[in-house]
Amino acid sequence: MTNHMITARGLTKSFPAKGRTVEAVRSVDLDVAHGELVAFLGPNGAGKSTTLRMLTTLLPPTSGEATVAGCDIRRDPAGVRRRIGYVGQGTSGGHTQRVRDELHAQGAFYGLGRRETRVRAAELIDSLELGQVADRQVQSLSGGQKRRVDIALGLIHRPELLFLDEPSTGLDPHSRANLWDHIVDLRRANGTTIFLTTHYLDEADQLAERVMVMDHGAVIADDTAWALKESLAGDRVTLTFGSPTDAAAAAARIGGELDGLVVTVTAPGGDHALPRYLRDLGDAGLVVEAATHRRPTLDDVFLALTGRSLREEAASAAAPAATSDTDPAHRVAA
Ligand SMILES: Nc1ncnc2c1ncn2[C@@H]1O[C@H](COP(=O)(O)OP(=O)(O)OP(=O)(O)O)[C@@H](O)[C@H]1O
Ligand SMILES: [Mg+2]
Q1: Is there a domain that residue 325 lies in?
Q2: Is the C-beta atom of 17 inside 6 A of ligand 1?
Q3: 183 C-alpha to ligand 2 centroid (Å)
Q4: 15-27: per-residue pLDDT in tens?
């Protein structure tokens, strides 16, 4: 279709559910360039995983088309699977094999030679800090350790395109940081294209070159985090006054929201906004006793787009999911 790593047009998935139809994904168009890192954000049930499962050929679309790593998802699903890595949202549960053996089996499955598999497995065990547990059965590991095994399994064949569905959910801050170091290194060394979902807005903000926001099955925003924040939110400036009359006068003057002694205003202009207000209010004889200035976040963006906050979603998503589709799907279907 194009020379993009991922191109989708009109990708749609409906599920029959209790006599009605759930439109999980509604006509999604997307283009991901070679080497790009794109983060998919959205509340629970937005359709992120369903989109990933269609792009990775685990789920047939109801309608629409997509080309992934040069292969059509309908006509050449095996080609797609050979070229991609996929780490699903669930954690690998019941593997009775040891971590190292599991990695070796995955390498063999992808057609890596014995020696190459061993070297690669050792590399991943090292970089994802799995050395302590490499000889233990996967099923005996903690949730965060299993998650790191999932990620190692998805990376064993050095895929040119990697799909990660909530890779860092359930990891402690140290493991999250390690995982990101590994992903950043992987991109630097191999130019790997990465398409991931996350509920951690700070991750998307800091690491992704582009953020796509999904809600109710549709993509509602698609740009750099910087551009999204710049265009939709504006900085939050909070000013505190010594008396309610000063606060009310200031709110009227600058068009802010009044709450007792505090006036809050959303202002464009970044670092220049706060001094501008202080000067203007000072000229009017209104004394500001305290002032704060906060950059907009991706949550402000989502709030502006939908009237809802993603923060609560992030909290509820912190519990690890119960099911697994990471590894068996690869093995059975490729
Ligand atoms: N197999 C299925 N059968 C019926 N409905 C499904 C199925 N899979 C997903 N859905 C529904 O499709 C919608 C989108 O689900 P999806 O898992 O893609 O959301 P998500 O954005 O990944 O959410 P989360 O952040 O919770 O992982 C939800 O309403 C979900 O209940
Ligand atoms: Mg999901």
Answers
A1: yes
A2: yes
A3: 20
A4: 998 889 999 999 9
CA of 316 to the centre of ligand 2 (A): 12
In a domain, 302, yes or no: no
Q: Which of 14, 49, 166 gets mutated to test ligand 1 (max ligand atoms within 8 A of its CB)?
A: 49
Give a yes or no: residue 74 inside a domain: yes
Domain of residue 271: give its range.
Answer: 234-295
- Is 181 part of a structural domain of the chain? yes
Check residue 328 and give its pLDDT. 33
- Confidence bin at 90 (pLDDT 50/70/90): confident
Q: How many residues does the chain have?
A: 334
Same domain, yes or no, for 217 and 269?
no
Which residue has the least CA distance to atom 8 on ligand 1? 50
Q: Are residues 214 and 71 in the same domain?
A: yes
Please name which of 153, 23, 139, 27 lies closest in space to residue 87, comparing C-alpha atoms: 153
H-run or E-run covering 112: none
User: Ligand 1 mean position to 156 CA, how many Å?
Assistant: 28
- Report every protein residue that has its C-beta within 5 angstroms of ion ligand 2: 48-49, 89
- How many domains does the structure of the chain reveal? 2
Of the candidate ranges 178-192, 215-229, 283-297, the one whose mean pLDDT is the lowest? 178-192
Measure the N-to-C terminal CA separation of the chain; round to a whole number of Å.
23
Do residues 183 and 276 both lie within one domain? no
**Model confidence at 267: pLDDT above 90:** no
pLDDT at 325 over 60: no
Q: What separation in angstroms does the CA of 89 have from each of 57, 86, 322, 324? A: 15, 10, 9, 7
